[in-house]
Design goal:
The complex is a heterodimer of chains A (about 350) and B (about 400). Chain A is an alpha/beta fold and about 350 residues long. Chain A contains 12 helices and 14 strands. In chain A, the strands form 3 sheets. Chain A has a 7-stranded mixed beta sheet, sandwiched between helices. With about 400 residues, chain B is α/β, with parallel strands linked by helices. The structure holds thiamine diphosphate and magnesium ion. Thiamine diphosphate sits at the interface of chains B and A.
């Protein structure tokens, strides 16, 4: 993957549009359907265009054998995608909510992730599994989960989570082109605008955010590069998805000059950017919405202490969802919002 | 044989016969006339129910007359009870949809058009029989007279929510009324119901289980696992498939209903199966009694496909006019279950238009009063919700240290 760059195709890069994350994802799929080996399917993705409307209009444009509805069987969706991928197609399948991926877990872990390894490269799984994740929409325990750690733990999978329209499109194109299977997690609270955890404030639309300016044509965002979304000198915040915005606002509100790193690709990940930042700041806070114990933050903390131990001036803090199922009514007590992140930033500064 | 005698293969993707702007051709339903389909002996072999999976068991004809072998001698009192449960379900649903629009709750799912199925089956079962419902069987709770105030407190996620604010609205759990905790993950309950029924057999009890699933969710492996286990262990369970033609925007043919019926799946797995008019209260009651009797006599599981129509949106987040004709329900040939039972009750002299209006008004008032009372205990919107501390309870029987520490960290 190291040959990938963020370079834009000069012929199409000029034209940009303001897009929401949904529009950006749709634009990526639209462009990739221009290849004859991409197929898109999942529950309600065909005629209707998906419950979040990410595939709206694509069936009409590319036909029913390229974009179609699937039976309600996540196991069947992923299992058939593995077969199609082995044949030579590049299936991009949608799991309606990440909370519903578990019936497909055997096909993901035992099959999709290992096809290349066990056949010594005879068969591969060039699949992309898109799924909305995360809370903040009063979805209760079955429309809110962030299961990324159940994928980052599996050898052979790539796990990606964009936090803005620009990255969403570029990362999705790179994922579809990638010959490895990619778990593509879409923080649904970000579909229509950035969200910093201040749930009592008016919703900000993407149009007001610079990262909503998206090239109309083809471009890629590499699958192994993090982005520094807020440069800073005092603390490094490692995060991804919705909590990128929480971390940014927490830095402003707490007055701690935090450097916020949006990992974008969770695994394999951009260790160099992380190490360079922590070596500069000497402090680190890890933030994610998923449950804490054995969450992806645990791996991040292990890596930081392994690579930056002598630069650390304070114990690493983590701010996460609690180790409970995602509650419905108590959503905001569960969500790792700006005040909890701000407190962690101050705490690492006090050491 | 040379390759080129074959035309290129094409992927077949089923389509509904109607779409917005194109009226549905419902002939795909293959209806039978009322009274036309036979009633087999209780100990029928699965293979001998094959014809019952392609026909459609119906009792009520267009004039509200009860016809044929499935027309039982039902106490009119029970039919009136069923009418009440159906009306209450519909009135409750409509009020709660309004409350959701008023942002008093985050979400709601109505069962408009499907009220007969849960109501009649609940009345055919004992209260100690456990139902494993989906989110569209609130009529079971109505037939079992569960407290409306408690139901609404769950919907409002307020301080008296019996589920402590943890679950999405409508994901009830009412063990005392034989109503298993609803999962948001489709189909999981179907195989669990078989396990519950097996437990009853292991313990030597006489309780049975009633499993529920939608047409769409039959594609999940839990459905197929349920059929296998139910057959192998002759589990005392009724396997209900509610074929309301739609799974969100997806037509039932995508779930496999195009060249076969859902009832037919049962026969293939060695389970006696029926296909029944789900909007015909009398047919639902009779078929449920037949299946319950088989289960209780140790004759094993039965699968019943209930043919009905999801008249409303999938949920308050859905707009069905985007994927099917907006007036589809009015052309659905099996009509409205409430209107059909009303016609029958009037025909047999046990109901009248006036009584219908009076009972409806009385139920409206009952639902309204319950809603008022429930709202006194708060709503999600006004923040009177279960405490944040309670979020850490019931993850384990006793709270382990790590959760105690996390609760302290949250400061509650
Ligand atoms: C495992 C799983 N996959 C997907 C979903 C999302 N989902 C919720 S309801 C639904 C449609 C179900 O249709 P059907 O089984 O026909 O029941 P109906 O809603 O018609 O009563 C879908 C796809 C889910 N809840 N669980
Ligand atoms: Mg359905």
């Amino acid at each position: 993957m190291n040959d990938q760059t963020t370079s834009l195709d000069p012929r199409t890069a000029a034209a940009t549009s303001s897009m929401t994350m949904i529009q950006a994802l749709r634009s990526a799929m639209d462009i990739m359907l221009g290849r004859d080996d991409v197929v898109i399917y999942g529950q309600d993705v065909g005629y209707f265009g998906g419950v979040f409307r990410c595939t709206e209009g694509l069936q009409n444009k590319y036909g029913k054998s390229r974009v179609f509805d699937a039976p309600i069987s996540e196991c069947g969706i992923v299992g058939t995608a593995v077969g199609m991928g082995a044949y030579g197609l590049r299936p991009v399948v949608e799991i309606q909510f990440a909370d519903y991926v578990y019936p497909a877990y055997d096909q993901i872990v035992s099959e999709m992730a290992r096809l290349r390894y066990r056949s010594a490269g005879e068969f591969i799984s060039p699949l992309t599994l898109r799924m909305p994740c995360g809370g903040g929409i009063y979805g209760g325990q079955t429309h809110s989960q962030s299961p990324e750690a159940t994928f980052t733990q599996v050898c052979g999978l790539r796990t990606v989570m964009p936090s803005n329209p620009y990255d969403a499109k570029g990362l999705l194109i790179a994922s579809i082109e990638c010959d490895d299977p990619v778990i593509f997690l879409e923080p649904k609270r970000l579909y229509n605008g950035p969200f910093d955890g201040h749930h009592d404030r008016p919703v900000t639309p993407w149009a007001k955010h610079p990262q909503s300016s998206v090239p109309d044509g083809y471009y890629r965002v590499p699958l192994d590069k993090a982005a520094i979304t807020r440069p800073g000198n005092e603390v490094t915040v490692l995060t991804y998805g919705t909590t990128v915005y929480v971390a940014q606002v927490a830095a402003e509100e707490s007055g701690v000059d935090a450097e916020v790193i949006d990992l974008r690709s969770l695994w394999p990940l951009d260790l160099d950017t992380i190490v360079a930042s922590v070596q500069k700041t000497g402090r680190c806070v890890v933030v994610h919405e998923a449950t804490r114990t054995c969450g992806f933050g645990a791996e991040l903390i292990a890596l930081v202490q392994e690579h930056c131990f002598h630069h650390l001036e304070a114990p690493i803090e983590r701010v996460t969802g609690w180790d409970t199922p995602y509650p419905h009514a108590q959503e905001w007590a569960y969500f790792p919002g700006p005040s909890r992140v701000g407190a962690a930033l101050k705490k690492v500064m006090e050491v | 044989m040379s390759m080129n005698e074959y035309a290129p293969l094409r992927l077949h993707v089923p389509e509904p016969t109607g779409r917005p702007g194109c009226r549905t051709d419902f002939s795909y339903l293959h209806l039978s006339d009322a009274g036309q389909v036979r009633k087999p002996a209780l100990d029928v072999e699965a293979a001998d129910t094959a014809d019952l999976c392609t026909g459609l068991i119906r009792v009520l004809d267009g004039q509200g007359q009860a016809l044929g072998p499935w027309a039982e001698d039902i106490d009119p009192q029970l039919l009136r009870q069923g009418m009440r449960a159906m009306l209450k379900t519909r009135i409750f649903d409509s009020r709660m949809v309004t409350a959701q629009r008023q942002k008093k709750m985050s979400f709601y799912m109505q069962s408009l058009g499907e009220e007969a199925i849960g109501s009649a089956q609940a009345l055919a079962l004992n209260r100690s029989d456990m139902c494993f419902p989906t989110y569209r069987q609130q009529s079971i709770l109505m037939a079992r007279d569960v407290s409306l105030v408690e139901m609404i407190c769950q919907l409002l996620s307020n301080e008296r929510d019996p589920l402590k604010g943890r679950q999405l609205p409508i994901m009830y759990s009412v063990r005392e009324a034989g109503f298993f905790t609803i999962s948001g993950n489709l189909a999981t309950q179907f195989v669990q119901a078989v396990g519950w029924a097996m437990a009853s057999a292991i313990k030597g009890d006489t309780k049975i289980a009633s499993a529920w699933i939608g047409d769409g969710a039959t594609a999940e492996s839990d459905f197929h696992n349920a059929l296998t286990f139910a057959h192998v262990y002759r589990a005392p369970v009724i396997l209900n498939v509610v074929n309301n033609q739609w799974a969100i925007s997806t037509f039932q043919a995508i779930a496999g209903g195009e060249a076969s019926t859902f009832a037919g799946r049962g026969v293939g797995c060695g389970i006696a199966s029926l296909r029944v008019d789900g909007n015909d209260f009398l047919a639902v009651y009779a078929a449920s009694r037949w299946a319950a009797e088989r289960a209780r006599r140790g004759l094993g599981p039965s699968l019943i496909e209930w043919v009905t129509y999801r008249a409303g949106p999938h949920s308050t987040s859905d707009d069905p006019s985007k994927y099917r004709p907006a007036d589809d329900w009015s052309h659905f040939p099996l009509g409205d279950p409430i209107a059909r039972l009303k016609q029958h009750l009037i025909a047999i002299g046990h109901w009248s238009d006036d009584e219908h209006a009076a009972v409806s008004a009385e139920l409206e008032a009952e639902v309204l009063a319950a809603q008022k009372q429930a709202e006194q205990y708060g709503t999600l919107a006004n923040g009177h919700i279960p405490s944040a501390a309670s979020m850490f309870e019931d993850v384990y029987k006793d709270m382990p240290d790590h959760l105690r520490r996390q609760r302290q960290q949250l400061g509650v």
